[in-house]
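Researcher: Re-running this chain for the archive, since the previous output was lost when a drive failed. Same request as before.
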Amino acid sequence: MEIAHTPTVLGVSNEVLRTPLDEAEINSKITPYWRVSVVELTGSTQNDLLQLVESNIALDGQVIVTEFQSNGRGRLDRTFEAPAKSALLFSFYIKPRKQRSEWGFIPLIAGLSLVRAITTIDTAMNVSLKWPNDLLINEKKCA
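Model: Regenerated structure tokens:
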């Protein structure tokens, strides 16, 4: 007997997924510093961006965003999956201006920035951080 499985992300089924990403629209709504490239499918936005950096092609403010990645990775090289169009999957490049030994604070600042941005939009939302930068909404991890 085969059991059907419908993937959910934060309790949201595939039936209510967002519309496709529009590269031109995204770029028109953000500051010129950021340059967003949308790819429909990739192994990993992080690997794609790393290839550009290693080839000296990546520009400061470059962003790669995808509808789906088959080999996403997070902290400590852990892999993660999400159904297509159900999550924000992106990597961005900021050219370092400090020594590598001074980078330790960056994940903390990123997490705090997300919390501040979300609570600015909706002050009633239950948003918190789990060390060092896991974003929780209503006690469920979403970033």
